[in-house]
Model the fold of this input.
Amino acid sequence: MPNLESDSTKPDTGKPGADARGGTAAETSAESWTPVELSRWADAVASSQAPFPDDLTANRAERLMVEVARRRRKLLVTFVARAIARDIQDGFRETTRR
Done:
């Protein structure tokens, strides 16, 4: 697992968001997460690179859940848009061959 902390001087403990003590972001306050750290956690969870931490408080879990949902929605829209564009392009190719 990649180290999701923005500070490259912190050790990579193999846990997303690991801090200098080796604790996970779930063990730190979500209110203390910087926007970059929250974004990195959301990216990792949305792309299935990291599991959703099960030991977050309700407030922390909600913030992360909203960000993960936003990213997954964007991924889905991008996937569908590309599929539609590919279908249109394939249809255009077939009509120009006739």
In short: Confidence is low (pLDDT under 50) at residues 5-15, 19-23. The chain has one domain: 25-97. Residues 25-97 form one domain.
